[in-house]
Amino acid sequence: MREIAGCILAGGKNLRMGGEKKVYLKYQGETFLDRIRGNFRNFPRIYLSVEDRGRYQEEGMILVEDEVPGAGPMGGIASVLRRCREDAVLVAPCDMIFLSEASIEKLKSAYEETGKPVLFEGEFLPLPGVYTKSMLPRMERHLESGDYRLKSLWEKEDYVTVKGPGKEELRNINRIEEYRKLAWIPAKEAAELLKNAAEEISETEMVSLKEATGRILSEDLAAKEDQPPFPRSPLDGYAIRSCDSRGASWKRPVRLSVTEKIYAGQMAKHRVGEGEAVRLMTGAPIPEGADTVIRQEHTKPLADGMVEICEELKPWQNYCPKGEDFCKGTVLLRGGKRMDFAAVGMAAAAGYEEVPVKRRVRAAVLATGDELQEPGEPLKPGGIYNSNGYLLGARLSELGVEVERSVRRADDTEAIAGWIREMREKVDLILTTGGVSVGEKDLMPEVFEALGIRKLFHGVQVKPGAPTMAGMYGNVPVIALSGNPFGAMVHLELLVRPVLEKMTGSSFYAPEYRKGVLVSDFVRPCESPRIVRARWEDGRISFPEQHASGVLASLGECNCLAEIKGRKEGVRKGETIWVRMLANNL
């Protein structure tokens, strides 16, 4: 029986991965090595081809060091074939993390049936594949001549092919940028991670109704009294007994004696008796004995203190009973309610002079970058104004957050880390903008590491602003947003609002969605979800002429964000999509 072992290529010096060992990179909680090794469970032995044994931990596999340094995969495979006891090895690179066990078994079965080298059919791919010891002499000649190309090795080889999987399964992760994108998580998952990690604010305070607008109630408010506290007239007219109006009309009016006149805020001195009426103004208490109010337009006042009733009324017609609006003890406003004008009015009607509210969320905003200057300063060559700090601070203020401080710092790891360390003692939430991508001065990953911030994620599957990262500094969320203005704003809406919802216990921060029909195209390719500024009006959605992520000028024209979900052709006029409103309930 032919024997075959597994062989995993560890990835050489990993220069294109920034020097990070591919085998130890993680995807969905597993290292690359563990993911690929799981596909070799039916092999008696697995060899790990490495460039230097001393740089790898013992992984329960047979480590084989490259005998010809710098020869790439061919050098590693040749070294394993020289060392192995088996007749062949099935070779796969450690960064082919989507390769399935079924595909590995196809290659293995083909070798066991034929005894020949095996590759997948279709476009030539030298890996994964079965390399036999019969290939070793030719391989050594290639190594001696300096021809390390696997393709030239296979050109003169007698081998078989089997039907392969799709391209996605055979995809390699070759560059650090690819890996970072691979590690990006969906926006919904990122928001949930942050929301679950954040803590609800427990401190409360009492504020007067004059200061309550925009605050979040910390507990339910129940009615202290019935509203109205007495039967009330909804109009100007006369309080009467409905039975006294029986048969009344303009042709045959009924005459009643007017005993008194009552305005709002006054109480009747007498009960309404048979044949009597009391003149009432809107809002006045309805006296006892009366069960209806006839509007003054359906009466004729007479000079002798009498009034003619020209309409027959039913009991309780035009009659507002005690507690019609709400009864004593009724819960009027629930804890977590954001106090708007209607809520303030209701609390006042219920007799509340002040209400219990959550302490405001306190946040600090830091804009990073050597190029940033404050508005009003003369711009230096290459300088730009710090718009992001003001943009984010203003949006947080609109959302009811107390912005403790909004500052800027140059690209200096120690200065940025020192500021965050200081702010942690003063605020509930820290936002930074800039320094999260892969440039030389993108320092936020270093800052997180220096401070020991527990990283939740780095990269979100939404453009613009995809490199956003976040973590927990003790119990304080730190969200490092893109330096791209619109990208920073997008991720504030997607990620910060859920945190505010958790901290305040208020559903006010949940987004409002509306559906509409596009009146213009957006044809920019969107292989991953993309957020585009838009305007919703009467069910019609339009895009501004300028929607580049670095452009702020068109932002003022927009009132919503449109999500274009992973479509290479974009979206076209006439399509129906959902948008996320920016100004819901503000």
Counting DSSP H or I runs of 4 or more residues, the number of helices is 12
The rounded Rg comes to 38 Å
Number of domains: 5
Strand order of the main beta sheet, please? 15-12-14-13-17-16
- Poorly predicted residue ranges: none
Protein architecture, described:
With 586 residues, the chain is α/β, with parallel strands linked by helices. It has 5 domains: 180 residues, Alpha-Beta Complex (Spore Coat Polysaccharide Biosynthesis Protein SpsA, Chain A); 163 residues, Molybdenum Cofactor Biosythetic Enzyme, Chain A (3-Layer(aba) Sandwich), CATH 3.40.980; 57 residues, Molybdopterin biosynthesis moea protein, domain 2 (Alpha-Beta Complex); 73 residues, Molybdopterin biosynthesis moeA protein, domain 3; 69 residues, MoeA, C-terminal, domain IV (Beta-clip). The chain is 22% helix and 25% strand. It has 12 helices and 32 strands. It has a 6-stranded mixed β-sheet with strand order 15-12-14-13-17-16, with no helix packed on it. It has a 6-stranded mixed β-sheet with strand order 23-20-24-27-26-25, with helices on both faces. Strands 5-4-1-6-8 form a 5-stranded mixed β-sheet, sandwiched between helices. Strand 16 and strand 17 form a beta hairpin. The longest helix has 20 residues. The two termini are 75 Å apart. The model has no long low-confidence stretch (mean pLDDT 90). GO terms for molecular function: GTP binding; metal ion binding; molybdenum cofactor guanylyltransferase activity; molybdopterin molybdotransferase activity. Pathway: Cofactor biosynthesis; molybdopterin biosynthesis. Its cofactor is Mg(2+). Belongs to the MoeA family. This is Probable molybdenum cofactor guanylyltransferase.
